[in-house]
Amino acid sequence: MSALRQVEGLLPALTRAEKAQLLRMVVQDLGDAFPGVESSPGVCGGEPCIVRTRIPVWVLEQARRLGVSEEGLLRCYPTLRAEDLANAWAYVRSHRVEIDEQIHANEAA
Question: What is the residue-wise DSSP string for 28-94?
Answer without folding.
Answer: HHHTT--TTEE--TTSGGG--EETTS--BHHHHHHHHHTT--HHHHHHH-TT--HHHHHHHHHHHHH
